[in-house]
């Protein structure tokens, strides 16, 4: 029997490098706040730059499209640059570009600065988790990554409402200037860390991927769900104020509810996906379609708005982890990283498509039409995901029965392999 690790052995593991992890988490908080803030300041941006809200939404779409196009090439281009030098430079570039947004005299200037910031943001996030992995032993990677990713989660419940409130009271330029200062401070802090380079990636798999078309289909469906979400979220300010009739202060409270519910959803995503690996993504998508439709009730009463906004936030917290875990499970062995990269690219294209489609809806109809269009888009994706889940369940059932019969004939315990498989997959997602 192989000896199992004892309690003292686990306790002997080195402590987490809290200073480094908290600095990286703070930097991630600042970058995600910078990414999402324009959606909550859309009306102020449109007034300040003398453009329509739909045109201002292009700042969100351009950001996502830039990340989808530029992240992989920039990561390859900077692969030989030491992380201890590269990460602070990226954050300083983000700070300068965000300063450019704060000072923008025109829409063209603001768009250029946002595209520059998006390229830096995409590179930062391509390097973030691999960098965290170099700071801790393998047994602690999951915990370390969870500490760092707490920053982006807090961006939704602290950074965005705070930025929106400051923007409403002091002007949107002040909010972006404050973020630029925070990014510069993060760059200085990370510059002091003794970071090392990430280990070399495994040799890329050769030959045709038998699961490629399945991965692409699921990724495209997930991208449609994100399209529906950002069709709404990009224009959440006019949705709450023009359609719902809520003032800036109340809108800030509703944004806080949205972010807090998202954190709850993220916490519960792993359990849902592990328990229902084939069905979870389709179920979340179906609930998302219903949630989008329920936003048509925003203008009934504040209590109703709190409930439907909380449901929406809960589902967007659930969706990305469930989606990523599903892609991991259907990927061919050795192709998990490629599957994940496809997912990230499609999701960012979905963000851009959502911002563009939402702008067209806003230009041709009123903000009240956004929930109905989003629900239709997400419902289309749901059909594909539910059918895929049912097909996968039948396939897995047949394969499972065949495996069980083989195991019984061999004298093995037929249930022993399943928990190991699930644990390995969950660990892969966390790290």
TrEMBL record:
Residues 19-396 form the Major facilitator superfamily (MFS) profile domain. The chain crosses the membrane at residues 21-43, 55-74, 86-109, 115-137, 144-164, 170-190, 211-233, 253-273, 280-298, 304-328, 340-362, 368-387. It is a multi-pass membrane protein. Pfam families: MFS_1 (PF07690). Residues 401-431 are annotated as: Disordered. Its main location: membrane. It is found in: Cell membrane. Keywords: Cell membrane, Membrane, Transmembrane, Transmembrane helix. It comes from the Bacteria. PANTHER family: CHLORAMPHENICOL EFFLUX PUMP RV0191, PURINE EFFLUX PUMP PBUE. This is MFS transporter. It comes from Microtetraspora malaysiensis. The lineage of its organism: Bacteria, Bacillati, Actinomycetota, Actinomycetes, Streptosporangiales.
